[in-house]
Amino acid sequence: MLKVENLSISFRTDEGLITPVQDIAFEVQPGRTLGIVGESGSGKSISTKALMQLLPGNGIISSEAKILYTDKSGKTRDINRLGKKGRAIRHIRGGEIGMIFQEPMASFSPVYTIGNQMVEAIRLHRNVGRKDARRIAVEMLDKVGISNPEARVDQYPHEMSGGMRQRAMIALALSAGPALLIADEPTTALDVTIQAQVLELMRNLQRDLSMGMIFITHDLGVISHIADDVAVMYLGTIVERGPTDKVIHEPAHPYTQGLIKALPSVDRLHDRLTPIPGDIPSPNDRPTGCPFHTRCTKVIAGLCDQHQPQILQVGEDHTVRCFLHEKQQRASA
Amino acid sequence: MADITDTCASMVTSTKGKKESAKEHKKRLKYYSASQWTLIWWRFRRHRAAMVAAAVLIFMALLGIFAEFVAPYGPTSRDTKYLDGAPQVPLFCDQNGCSWRPFVHGVSTKRDPVTLRAISVPDPEKRVYLTFFAQGEKTELLGFIPSKTHFFLLDDKRAKLHLWGTDDLGRDVFSRTIYATRTSLSIGVIGVLISFVLALIIGGVAGYAGGWVDNIIQRVTEVIRVVPIIPLYMGLAAAMPKEWSTTEVYFAMTLILGFFGWPTLARRIRSQLLSIRSEDYVVAARLAGARPLRIISQHMLPSFTSFIIVDLVISFPYMILSETALSFVGLGLRPPTVSWGVLLQQAQSVRVIEQTPWLFIPAIFVVLAVLAFTVVGDGLRDAADPYSDAR
Amino acid sequence: MLRFTLERLVGMIVTMVLVSMMVFLIMEIPPGDYADRYAFRKYSGTGIAITEADIEAIRHDFGLDKPMALRYVDWIGNIVLHGDFGQAFAFETDVTKVIGDKVWLTMAILFGTLLLTYLIAIPIGIYAAVRRASFADYGLTIFSYLGLALPNFLLALILLYFVNLWFGADIGGLFSTGMSDAPWSFAKAWDLIKHLWLPAFVLAWSAVAYQIQTIRATMSDELNKLSVTAARARGVPETKLLIKYPARLAINPVVSTIGFDVNRIFSELPIVAVVLGLTELGELLLNAYLDLDMYVAGAILLMLTFVIVLMNFISDLLLAWLDPRIKLGSN
Ligand SMILES: Nc1ncnc2c1ncn2[C@@H]1O[C@H](COP(=O)(O)OP(=O)(O)O)[C@@H](O)[C@H]1O
Ligand SMILES: [Mg+2]
Asked: Is the CATH number 1.10.8.60 carried by domain B176-384?
């Protein structure tokens, strides 16, 4: 339902043009969840904002990028051609693609009730009156597990707890009936126990409503719970992409391997965690060649620091951007 | 110096993995080890508007300080031959040719054919030349050094040069404006200093003591903040006895202005003190038995001096505007003292603007000074706290 | 909400009591007292010689020989209980008579000015924030510096000059000639409105400059909030989005500084009144000060401050109504 190709994102800044996302491509199938995982600053948020033309004024999407979206009626359009304003993009925002953000408090306006903001969204995308919109809002709040929704609908965001707010935010995003839901680290700001509940809720909702979903996180552990496919991002490029099982059990990129080693797990409880050495470089100062070569333990001098690796197929639907595999493939050919 | 700041700034923002030369390394060390004040100064210098404004202020201050030298005549000297006279522009050329020395045309007195009053008309045939560093009226430089030297005068001692014209009594507007600059700026300085001392005491006590003392002080502050300030000043100024000398009035005015200028700054000091009162180093000093005054002055104040300075600079315009407004309506300084407000008192009506617009020149000084103080204040604030406003 | 209102009300009363004390002090400061000035005014030039005893008698008549604290209680008691502000000697009548309908004229000027200020400043401030770093934005920044630097009595003079130049005379004052003493009628009210715009514009000048900067700053902050992006991500049309989300919040600091604006307007009123020839409380206050007619001056100072305190109170209530988070804080 969504197919992204050649997406690069740049920003005009005081220090000149920076390009924190370079040439990424991914795909979301209807009814399936794509997980995007990467350290903070790797460009996950801006990549998904670009999908809805929500970049700030100084952001530019490369002109050769294609964001092909097939809507509920089966029509396919390139969102990159729609521009930032106008009816067409507004129809997609909220009505076709819903979005949930990391900070549940900040994503609500503090001066309107939850109900007010939900009714607004519902009436923008569904042809219903005020009364019906309110009924839908209450139903939606009920569906996301908020008790006493008739009363809650008239509350202000600051009158709710963090977990409740995030549930309300999910209800708000879903109330307009989107076919694709983008969730940008929806559980990061929550307590661990509530995190699990919200995660569970989102998985169930996605299955019940048979939506497509893009789930962003910096936590590979979460991905294995929720995503069917996964894209691993590092410094603005997708270094590995494939079905979640494959990527987790047979990681092909040294970065993914590092992430998995850094993951705590029950059967390795007594081993020390091995974090990836070094710091993530600044996006205004990207290393030449493979962006990961400065921290890679298997770096090939003279190659990785000079040339950008190409996307390689390493399994069915499993691709990687790494010279190690190029060598292997050449050797086996 | 400028290149140091620039290179350092670029070094901080871009962490290019290039090898830096020994010289650059030294510069960088200098940047990292620079004191807070040096950093503020470096940042302030890059604020071009603020630098220009600071230059304007310094220039004005110099004019005021050396008024006796800059002004050709005393503030109350009269030129009865040139009443309500228009500004005289020094020329280099006229219909009789050019000269290297600037000159003005002489003035001859004629009788108005209708009213028979004596009027002065310029005589284009008569040239009077300007001389610089000339000897003229006796004055006392800075108030105590006897001197006769003036920056410029006419070489014909009987004629007078009125760069910005004269008022109805034939007093030189240029000279008066220069003297007024001294009065108005100094009133601002003293007023700000008084309110600074008061703010320090009041805010310091409130912030250090907290509790009910703070509560009472807050109430009083609130009262002063709600009463409209100019009517309040006017009430106090009106109470000055008519028979007071100009000096007494001058000091009373500075007291009045300073006396109500403290609430904003006191509030700032109080809240800063309250917030750092519980910080470790202050608590440690208190536990070690340091006396309150010592704790405030040694430990608490230095940590926000830069804010205080910014607030002080920003409060100047209010002082200057208040003094101008009060004197303008006759409730502030009184003639023969000259201040911008006293001078503008002569320009209260539209008729004056039509007939003798040059009496309005002091207004330009007021606007310029207020503008300059505001811009310098903004520049200082940005320099002291670069993150205050992500402009 | 009730509790919040009561709290503010009590605070307001306490402030007013303290203000009245300060005003009374100011009335007491000028050398000599009311009896001296009364005697001087009444008998100077009449040839009648007055003695200390005469003055002492006057003093006793007016109750001026009582201690200061008692005199304060008398003064404020009469004001609160009987609406009696004491005697004005300039016209030898009650202060209330002297003040007359000037209170309403002053209120007309005040609300005219406030209305004009917000009508100009709010849209422009929002526009400057939305078009940040554009040509218009820089222009407005320069304007607001000028607005703060040009004292409004100078502005008034300049405007008077140009208005005279372009439209001819009769523009100062609050009424056309002949109208000011006429009984109130529709025609008179309309005449007032026609004359109001100039003082309103002059008095609004610096408030506009100040408010534009505040609104621009808050609006810029609000525009960068996640809630705005979130609303945009729900497909809210851009104009509605700007008004409903950031602009709605950018109004808050304006509301919270209403009292401050009123204070500024009253502060500048006497001076502007001199230049524009307005016959309202500011001008009366100035003349009362010049004549040391301290009961009149005290009454006006008290009234002006009361309006400011009242507007502060209203602004607190408005703010609590506008911003649901505030009620939470007070409970
Ligand atoms: N408005 C902006 N202007 C300039 N650069 C930006 C802006 N927004 C994001 N970036 C750049 O994009 C990078 C990636 O940001 P983001 O997508 O938020 O990362 P993530 O969501 O993976 O943590 C940031 O590190 C920053 O350098
Ligand atoms: Mg992010």
From this structure: no
Q: What's the one-letter identity of residue A209?
A: L
* Residues in Cβ contact with B262 at an 8 Å cutoff, skipping those fewer than 6 apart: B195, B196, B198, B199, B202, B203
Q: Measured between alpha carbons, how far is C133 from C123 in angstroms, rounded to an integer?
A: 17
Contact C233 A52 (CB under 8 A): yes
Q: According to the model, what pLDDT value does residue A222 have?
A: 87
Mean pLDDT, rounded, of chain A: 89
Return the partners of chain C (3 or more C-beta pairs < 8 Å): A, B
Domains of chain C plus CATH, in order, are 35-84 (no CATH), 101-329 (1.10.3720.10)
Residues 6+ apart with CB under 8 A from C11: none
Instruction: Give the distance from residue A158's alpha carbon to the nearest chain C alpha carbon, in angstroms.
Output: 7
CB of C154 within 8 Å of a chain B CB? The answer is: yes
One-letter amino acid of C175: F
Asked if C141 contacts C148 with a C-beta cutoff of 8 angstroms, the reply is no
Q: Looking at the CA of residue A49, tell me the nearest atom of ligand 1.
A: 17
- Percent of chain A residues past pLDDT 90, beyond the cut: 55
Give B311-337 as a DSSP string: HHHHHHHHHHHHHHHHHHTTSSS-TTS
pLDDT of residue C186: 73
Q: How many domains does chain A have?
A: 2
Residues of B in contact with C301 (CB under 8 A): 227-228, 231-232, 235
Long-range contacts of A296-301 (CB under 8 A, 24+ apart): A296/A254, A296/A255, A297/A254, A297/A258, A298/A254, A298/A324, A300/A324, A300/A327
Tokens of A83: 């521009």
Closest listed residue to residue A106, CA positions, set A175, A194, A165, A43: A165
Instruction: Give residue C25's pLDDT band: very low, low, confident or very high (50, 70, 90).
Output: confident
**What single-letter DSSP state applies at residue A281?**
P
With b for 16 or more beta-carbon neighbours within 10 A and e for fewer, the C86-115 pattern comes to bbbbeeeebbbebbeebbebbebbbebbbe
Structural domain including A123 reads: 105-177
Q: Which residues of A98-124 are buried (b: 16+ CB within 10 A; e: fewer)?
A: bbbbbbbbbbbbebbbbbbbbbbbbbb
Instruction: Calculate how far, in angstroms, residue A283's C-alpha sits from the geometric centre of ligand 2.
Output: 14
Q: Which of A285, A293, A295 to mutate to test the interface with B (most CBs of B within 10 A)?
A: A285
What is the reported pTM?
0.81
Residue B391: its pLDDT value, please? 34
Distance from CA of A293 to the nearest CA of B (A): 15
User: Is residue A141 pLDDT above 50, yes or no?
Assistant: yes
- Residue holding tokens 């290019």? B16
Atom nearest to A9 CA in ligand 1: 12
Q: C289 C-alpha to center of ligand 2: Å?
A: 64
Q: Residue A294's closest chain B neighbor by CA?
A: B17
Residue A183 counted as domain residue: no
Q: A313 CB under 6 A from ligand 1?
A: no
- Whether A15 and B16 lie within 8 Å, measured CB to CB: no
What distance in Å separates the CA atoms of residue B316 and residue B309, rounded to the nearest whole number? Answer: 11
A283 vs B contacts (CB less than 8 Å)? none
CA A150/CA B102 separation, integer angstroms:
88
pLDDT tens string B38-55: 777 877 887 888 889 899
CA A42 to ligand 2 center in whole angstroms:
8
Chain A residues whose beta carbon lies within 8 Å of the beta carbon of residue C226? 101, 103, 106-107
Residues 173-192 of A with CB under 8 A from C: 173, 176
In whole angstroms, what separates CA A97 from the centre of its chain? 12
pLDDT at B32 over 70: no
